[in-house]
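Worked problem 6 (solution included).
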Amino acid sequence: MKIARLTSTLSVCPQVGLAEVGAVAAQGFKSLICNRPDGEGADQPTHEEMAAAASAQGLQFHYLPIVSGQVSDADAQAFGELLAKAPAPALAYCRSGMRSATLWALSSKLATPAAELIDTARRAGYELSALMPRLMAWSVPGLVGERTDAEHAVVIIGGGAAGIAAAASLLARAPGLDIAIVDPAEAHYYQPGWTLVGAGVFEPEKTVRKMAGLIPKGVHWIKAAVAGFEPEQDAVMLEGGRVVRYRMLIVCPGLKLDWAAIPGLAETLGRNGVVSNYRYDLAPCTWQQVRQLRRGRALFTQPPMPIKCAGAPQKALYLSCDHWRRAGLQGQIATEFYNAGAVLFGVADYVPALMEYVHRYQVQLNFGHTLTAVDGPNRIASFSRLLPGGERETVQRSFDLLHAVPPQCAPDFIKASPLADAAGWVDLDPGTLRHRRFANVFGLGDAGNTSNAKTAAAARKQAPVVAHNVVAALRDEPLSARYDGYGSCPLTVERGKIVLAEFAYGGQLKPSFPRFVIDGRKPSRLAWLLKERILPPLYWQGMLKGREWLAQPELVG
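Solution. The predicted structure is:
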């Protein structure tokens, strides 16, 4: 935890962990201020969790969440008013500390010269020179059109699986191409592994690596959050006011897990039997709670589509049930699956095999049920149920274990941008993956509005298509690469067996292997070995290195 002192009454720092709150109090701070909205990062504690930890250490906690790159003057005023009443000294934090430092500078501009504020922040490790116009005046017309802080041939928004794979595939086609990846995160996660972490198969440390070690050699890493887009001017605005220009833009920031959309869920995660494999720090809790449960009721939920890896909620269900069956506890634990959708799985060919396991594990299926609230201390989950006539009613169920999956949406800076469709997703042509309105903008991964499954396997197939078409666009050539909607969902139906669902647009089956090797419609030991032993190194050493094994793009024309 790197703490930077701005004044005698305020310091700022990157994300504070739950285990670090005691150290904050030990250093003499009286107040802790969170400027980071819940759900930004996979390993981020909620503000309710932080408030409880701060209270236990005698700290006054304040929550003033600011969307990355969108610090308004009203936000700065609220921050200044908060500092005036909070016990000093105070420590403010966000993802990197930049938002907190920006709030401080803007809240202090009437009392302190702009140059002094920028010098103070620079000594503390935060470069706020891009704020100079805002520190000296309320607005500067035409700012974006008149300035450029950086310029690259290709700018990629997002350093997740899609972004790094796209950069690596670009370099494989055009060595030396000027590429920049924009992402503020320090860590990169192999999220498909979290299902196996939640089942005790993987250690969580196997699913995370430092971002710095994964950025392809020669690619610039702009370690900042995006504030907005000006596609008419080929510009991206970053946190702090910086402007980056591009010839080609690739947008792949992932999606947002909206934990706060379900009242009561965020504050009880990891406690009261409430777990989720959708967060790095919570997946180990799933395995711990599953092992500890000896009797009672276990609820597993799936929110409305689209979500990241639509099979993941079921994977948690099947692997938990398999453990209880092997431990001789199946008859003592009532297991229920609450799915907001109307079917068990969207591709009908795989449903018969899944239903066999539903019957084997004696799972009660409940379709048309959406989790709407969680009362953790009393262990009550509330669901909105769709009735045959179209009406909805609220159903409450007690639980001893609740595996909750949050609703998911595009990041806020995407939803509010010109790149978004009416639903907030990046508006892409499903074949070329080029933006429907801006010819030099492409996209892939979970933030796009294409109808494929949102999985790492989809991004693995999309990255070469985008790379091929971006290079073609740079050369003023036709876009000949096409994405067929391929996605894969290895459904872990028991420890040691997987139903390997592979499909393209429209639910068309798209197997990678002959059926005599792996018949994806049936549970397979070989498919389990593929997921456990082959796919992780294929991800780290293949996909992220631009090696397109079984992922070469289809070319037309």
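Discussion: The first helix runs from residue 21 to 26.
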